[in-house]
# Entry
Amino acid sequence: MAFLTFNKAELVNLSYSLKREIISANKTGAYCNTSIVACNTRRYHGLLAVPVDALGGGKYMLLSALDESLYLSGRQFNLGIHCYGGQYDPKGHKYIVDFDVNPIPTLTYKVGEIVLKKSLLLTPDSDQVMIRYELVASPSVVKMTLRPFLAFRSIHALTQQNAQADTSYREINGGAAFKMYPGFPDLNIQLSSAKSSFKYAPCWYKGVTYSDEYRRGFDCIEDLFVPGDFCVEMKKGDVLVVAAGVGEVAPRSIKSRYDKAEKSMDASDNFQDVLVHNADLLKYSRDGRKRICAGFSWLDAGLLRETVVSLPGLTLYADGDCAEFEEILDNLIADNEERLYRRTTQVEAPLRIADVLQQYIAFAGGEKDVWKKYGKVMCGIIESYAPGVRKEVGLHPNGLLWAQMDRTALSWMNAYVDGYPVTERAGYQVDTNAWWYNALCFALEMEEKYGAKKNDFVNKWSKVRDLAKANFQATFYNESKGYLADYVDNAGGHFEVRPNQMVAVYVPYSPVDDEVKSQIMSVVKSELVTKRGLRTLSPRNVNYRGVYEGSQRDRDLAYHQGCTRPELLGAYIDINFKMVGPAFVKKAEYLLEGFLEDISKHGVGAFSELYDGDPPHEPHGAISSACATASLLWSEYLIAVNKLEK
# Structure
């Protein structure tokens, strides 16, 4: 795709190129993430980060970078690039003339008459990155050295020179193996050329600076260990492939392994292809358990809220894979018993299991079988909100849920500043209670259809459902304002205009009247909807922050106080299709156009977690977000369905 390429003028301009990142991930949970000029600007950047089971399963950066140097006629040309303080050395980006990422990130370097292509490929099913070099043009034989920068630390941390590091190496077939600390796997670096060699010259490169961490006010300086150089000679037309991973491979097989992996990767020819490709990257298996990664490169896998939000989009609406949907859901339920049935700081998240099941039934049918498998889970979730079960949230006599814990954010809006939640929302939360009413109605209807004839669950919770219905609108709706309170506490309603009230319109079992639905959506449309999703707070509010920049404090104040969220767009589009039908197709397509425009920003070929609330809505947060990607897939699905109905 043309929008996934960059020209020389863009690449050599670091103020432009360093803001654009590439991300590759695979089915084992490993990833490769750096800028488009291969200069690391975050602690999370590097050529190979892998989950390490022996250290608790978190992700660890093994190989930070691999610097190339070319030698011709007694002259040396360094292609790498690192930041030290405010200086870049070497400045290999000045030799880059082209970049393409469809389907594999490929950089083209031109040094005089020498043209070298470098491609980065993360193998689909192993903790291994492969770097392919092709000497496209050269007047004579070129000597190339490859200098690995080793990190061996958590992706969330930084490292410094220390006496505990094992700086030795072990010779292996076609290369060398390194293991700097106990508990880590070996990092095996092997070359496909039989004439390659490794020269041991251990050295710490001190003061490597990550400019994006500096800009955000985080610790940003570390020391990386370089054990020496791999050396090889190449002539015009030669291809060299470097394999760096936790397992050894036969050097003779490296090229064929690369070619096989490359052939398995399809080019993305349109917006839908890019979405489906990203959906695939965000799902991976470790120890036979498939989970969803909330986002790259620092968000975890298997998170409750992020999984329930993104699961239908990344499976059903991406490729219709119902078996994969159930596999991930089953793993999520098994891994989150504490949150589903006893306690969680995101009090609405367990209730959204009902929405996941409702979307599944609407997509694939078979409600009886779905309820047979998941009915016990859903009923158990509802029972956990009974008085005295959860400390963070409880059922009041009016049928509504009251959430409150001192200095704790008990919803998805969970940013903190100086130990205090930015949006605590203690009391009756509008979204939590809309999810609650929907879950009650869904579970009761299913139990009445498919449960036991003498059903204690139905008898107990039918009264609560009726109370919730009778009191929801009376509690949250303000007729003079024409919309719902975001939350209600002992002081009364708090009427900040936020997207949370939209849940009361979205859910299949709505607790508000049709006239109120129209009023809510009118306010949402006029104050929250942008071309990059929905704002988390109206610009008319004094606390609105339209730009996600500055210190950590500044960014946390903006995170749910104005930033737009692509993840909210799917529900907004779904509501409008239900209200006006296929007539909303053109408007829905318009709302998605902006994401196509931004596909070469931030995460190249990926979809960002959030955007500025103010135009031009620059992207921020995780460069590849499961919730954002799923929402866009859902939106595309809804558009396609409604086009058929025209």
Notes: The CA atoms of residues 509 and 572 lie 16 Å apart. DSSP finds 19 helices and 37 strands in the chain. The two ends are 30 Å apart (CA to CA). The longest helix spans residues 430-450.
